[in-house]
Design brief:
This protein is α+β, with helices and mostly antiparallel strands and 139 residues long. It has one domain (3-135): Hotdog Thioesterase (Thiol Ester Dehydrase, Chain A), CATH 3.10.129. It has three helices and six strands. Strands 1, 2, 3, 4, 5 and 6 form a six-stranded antiparallel sheet that branches. A hairpin with a 5-residue loop joins strand 5 and strand 6. The radius of gyration is 16 Å and the shape is elongated. The N and C termini lie close together (12 Å).
Length: 139
């Protein structure tokens, strides 16, 4: 299974008054890491939206466990992978490491969506060729 990996440098503005990363920043990083994962599979966001005529891959559930804080100047590594596929939704796991230590673990559920002619956003089946890209069968 395809796994994405990227490094983030903690900036001063990422931190709260206690000097540690303010928790919403992790969710921003994980959202960006999901997009990087799709890009690494050969589907940059703009290409994916246009090719499949979708509204996006909407986040419908997120949860995290925070084990160790990160602070200004830390270089953290985020490893992301898709852990499960369903008809129109999928699960993503993110692990953020500070050095060798697992600092944050996060789980997302996302839905492959379309916008109907009346403007309503609804789920759509994920194309088999998209799933194949993540299993290595597509490229």
């Amino acid at each position: 299974m395809l796994a994405g990996r990227r490094t983030v440098v903690v900036e001063w503005g990422d931190c709260d008054p206690a000097g540690i990363v303010y928790f919403p920043r992790y969710f921003e990083w994980f959202d960006a890491s999901t997009m990087v994962l799709f890009e690494q599979a050969g589907l940059p966001k703009a290409v994916m939206l246009a090719r499949y005529d979708i509204a996006g891959i909407l986040l419908v559930e997120a949860r995290s466990r925070f084990m160790k804080p990160s602070t200004f100047g830390d270089r953290v590594v985020i490893e992301s992978r898709i852990t499960g596929w369903r008809r129109s939704s999928f699960d993503v796991s993110h692990k953020l490491f500070r050095g060798d230590d697992l600092a944050v673990e996060s789980f997302e559920t996302r839905v492959w969506t379309e916008r109907t002619p009346s403007g309503v956003i609804k789920s759509r089946a994920i194309p088999a060729e998209v799933i194949a890209l993540f299993s290595g069968a597509g490229g």
